[in-house]
Design goal:
Elements: H1 23-26, E1 53-54, E2 72-73, E3 83-87, H2 91-102, E4 106-110, E5 123-126, E6 129-132, H3 143-155, E7 158-160, E8 165-169, E9 173-176, E10 184-186, H4 190-197, E11 204-207, E12 214-218, E13 221-226, E14 229-234, E15 236-239, H5 244-250, H6 256-263, E16 270-277, E17 293-297, E18 304-307, H7 308-312, E19 322-327, H8 330-335, H9 345-363, E20 375-381, E21 388-389, E22 395-397, E23 402-404, H10 414-433, E24 451-452
Parallel strand pairs: 1-2, 3-4, 3-15, 4-11, 8-17, 15-23
Antiparallel strand pairs: 5-6, 7-10, 8-9, 12-13, 13-14, 16-19, 16-20, 17-18, 18-19, 21-24, 22-23
Helix pairs in contact: 2-10
Amino acid sequence: MQTASNHLLTSSSFVPNFPCSKSFLKHPNLTFLISPICSSSSKDGPKKPTRRRSYGSSRKSVLRKTFKQEQVTFTAPVSDDPLVAIIGGGMSGLLCALQLEKRGVRSTVFDTGIHGLGGRMGTRSIDEMVFDHAAQFFTVSNSAFCELVDEWSQKGFVRQSQGVIGELEAGGQFFPFLSSPPRYIAVNGMRTLADSLLSQSSMIEVVRPCWISSMEPYNGMWHLSENGKHRGQFDTTVIAHNGKCANRLLSTSGLPLIARQMKRLDLSSIWALLAAFEDPLPFPGETDAPFEGAFVKGIDSVSWMGNNTQKLSSSQKVGPPHCWTFFSTASFGKRNKVPQENIPSATAEKVKLLMLAGVENALGLEIGSLKTPIYARVQLWGAALPTNTPGIPCIFDPLGRTGICGDWLLGSSLEAAALSGLSLGNHIADFLKSGGSRPDEFAVGLHEDFHPLQGHEIGQFPGLEFNKDICEAEVQLQA
């Protein structure tokens, strides 16, 4: 048996209520085996009972890969002053850390960002040019998230965007959205919101840039490493990112049920083109495009075009330069997918020209008439947006004391990411307060089925698309 020291909480218990996700409340009883999770065929006959293995004081375990790996089982009571590792500094990871802090739990956030935190809240600044190159804006439909956004507005982190958005069809036919929910942006680019969220925290440490490459259970704790460099030991871990890197991390960590759920996630690939022009983009019959942003229809190489300069400016007169973010469709991204860490120059040039041609088509311009941008950069968003979801707020394995949060668990929006982080933070805090003595009561999301996810090519905007809001999660934020 292990002799791990793990978690005790000093704040009141809180259990969120998710009326559209009954599985979150049921906490189904689960059986964790060290044998492969996949069932054997009947011709093999009955299998001998397997035993749980506890990780403790004697050795570091050698784990089998992926779904055949042994299940980590921590059995010792939680410690008096637990420390949680959160791998990923996007919206869900940051709000998980903040919610843990409100419940009296310390955490360390590990993020790969060189320029700052944020994940999909990415902003690139080059001299006087500013581009939101991932999330463009967000909407609010959930009461708990609304409370947070009101707080951010009061602190000056975010404000409503007043510009016109709508749909743009090939040939320059623009249809403005006559009514839509308030759209929010960070005042100086989306990344500034991520950097501002932890500005007043006292129990959250941030380590970046850092790419956690391994998690090892040893002496009742999770030991995290970055390419062989020890990054600390933790009572509980949170995976707040996804894609191939998360799958690789989980493949040998002793968490087969969590690894299986993460592996079931499908992600799109989307190209982003950041382009700055000396003059405003022309539009048929007008001196410039009559919109701040547009969802483009019927053009394969462009699905969204957003005027960063107009969006972020506080005055009527904007530019030059005029900074635009263009996104491709997922089908275009899939056909032109390459390793995003090493994009061939020929591919980058091809994608840039095809996307600029798509912009011409969308605006109804003659071929080759669009002036060459004074700055242009393409970026592949390799693990862009989820195309399927289990529709639950979070995933948590109480035996392995590890959870997952992220927008994909509820949808594909910043609101979904926020709600997932808040939910997992509360869930882990409740688990720690219980002392870890009733693990089966805290197992969440380890067996949920996935279903297809609909939305725009660049994500969901609750209240804006299909009139389908994220399910109302009555998450109360505790002081």
